[in-house]
Design goal:
By secondary structure, this protein is mainly alpha-helical. It has five helices and two strands; from the N terminus they run H-H-H-H-E-E-H. The longest helix is centred in the middle third of the chain and has 30 residues, at 35-64.
């Protein structure tokens, strides 16, 4: 099964740009003490990330016939979001405390672990990434 695909790479680049932009705007909103701006920014970011994952995930599934229930995209989002978050913190954009980032990493990591379990269950139903009923009708 192909794990690293062109669409996953395109998603990662798009998500990286969007996440850096989100962290910058979030820093501005927090600096301006704008609760509504902070909440709006977070909601828009979450929706755009979902749409990016859906768009590139659908294309990836069609082009590469991968049955991974979106786990690769979830893992990339987790790594990018936390990496940019910690990077922003150490650059001086104090959007969140280290304790909050650690709690986010742990709780999101638990969700990612659950997603991994479902991914492995689904993966066991395939042969080299192809559904068994596609190979043996």
């Amino acid at each position: 099964m192909k794990s690293l695909t062109i669409r996953l790479g395109q998603f990662a680049i798009s998500a990286l740009v969007l996440t850096v932009l989100f962290r910058y705007v979030l820093n501005l909103c927090i600096g301006a003490n704008s609760l509504m701006g902070t909440i709006s920014c977070s909601i828009v970011y979450a929706c755009l990330m979902f749409l990016l994952g859906w768009y590139f995930g659908k294309k990836d599934a069609v082009e590469n016939d991968i049955h991974d229930i979106g786990f690769r995209f979830h893992l990339v989002t987790y790594i990018l979001s936390l990496g940019v978050g910690y990077g922003a913190y150490f650059m001086g954009w104090y959007t969140e405390s280290l304790a909050v980032m650690a709690i986010t990493a742990i709780s999101w990591g638990v969700g990612l672990a659950v997603h991994c379990v479902f991914f492995l269950i689904e993966w066991k139903k395939t042969i080299k990434g192809y559904a068994k009923n596609e190979i043996f009708p």
